[in-house]
Amino acid sequence: MIIRASTVAIASCLGFAALAAVLMQTPARAQSADLVLCDRLAADPSDPDKPADIKGVDHVEPADTATAIKFCRSASGSSRRALYQLGRAYVAGQQMPAAVAAFRKAADKGSTSAMVELGVMYAAGSGVPKDDAQARKYFERAAAAGNARGATNLMTLSGSAGNASDPAEARAMLAKAADANSAEAQFQLGLMMAQGTGGPQDDVGARAMFEKAAAQNHAGALEWMGSFAANGRGGPKDKEAAKGYYERAAALGNEDAKAALERLKCPMVLTTKKGEILSHLCF
Fold this sequence. Notes:
The chain is built from 15 helices and two strands. By secondary structure, it is mainly alpha-helical. Among the domains are: 110 residues, no CATH class; 82 residues, Serine Threonine Protein Phosphatase 5, Tetratricopeptide repeat, CATH 1.25.40. Helix 4 runs antiparallel to helix 5, helix 8 runs antiparallel to helix 9 and helix 10 crosses helix 11.
């Protein structure tokens, strides 16, 4: 029976004595215990609603799905975080209609993470009919509330930040997400600053954004930092630093960085009068 499976799962984590104490608590306390267990099995590391002392899991483990659904459902009556996590548990159990319903309820209560998940579902046509307009609405709601994933997903849906219908608004949304330490948002904002899209060109600001994203091993930001360092754009010119950034980006599979490394090795190019390359001079 599910109750027995859940009891065994809890006992393995808390011990039978702790389990007995939980089961003997008052309804209010039991609800709190349900949320603790829901958090343990289904909390999202990137959820802004998640308390800092809860680590979270990248995905709900298949073996934990039934237990997570049980406790998150029990806790969802008084917690929008638990509602969102219930949706995650349903997704893990391939119960997509139930997942959509849980995410919608959580989004209606203000969960920006639930808004993002609904946007992803509509964008991919997973569990709901594919609908880019609906996906955009959910991403916009999440981004306007400061959710980093909402902002970056909105840019992805547009193709790039530069292709957004309102570049100035996109830049403002990315700034919020960048403040939340989203590497992708920092990179996209850096591009907009470097290109003067949605606001004034700002090489110093762009370099700062690329540097922050590069510190999180964002391949694109590492490649752009290499270019900025190589050309002294937005800060000091430093060929050795540029090489280091390019090497890190290349190790992550960035093809532009690999090409840039070759250019650093062989900076001199011999060409014909027509501009055809004859050979490279390497040092």
